[in-house]
Design a protein that fits this description.
Layout: H1 2-10, H2 15-18, H3 20-59
Length: about 90
């Protein structure tokens, strides 16, 4: 067993193994910057959506119309589904 450990200790490491840490850390930095950019874009989209809704709701407001009162106690009720429900 000692001989096997000596062989492993004497063996040269692959060159790609030396650069593995750098590649992993670079990929993590890219992922972190993409996540922060995504959060900023979502905040900007929410702001424009809400402000556009507020502008459209206040600028494109239709004129007010008074609704007719509902009077279910009259004989010809517009809410009755048939004439059988007429009170008279």
């Amino acid at each position: 067993m000692e001989e096997e450990f000596r062989k492993l200790n004497a063996a040269a490491l692959p060159s790609t193994l030396d650069a593995l840490d750098d590649r992993v850390l670079a990929a993590l930095a890219v992922r972190k910057s993409e996540a922060s950019a995504t959060r900023r874009m979502m905040a900007v989209a929410a702001f424009f959506s809400l402000s556009g809704g507020m502008v459209a709701g206040s600028a494109l407001m239709p004129s007010a119309v008074a609704a007719s009162p509902l009077t279910p106690l009259i004989s010809a009720s517009p809410l009755a589904p048939s004439s059988l429900l007429d009170a008279r």
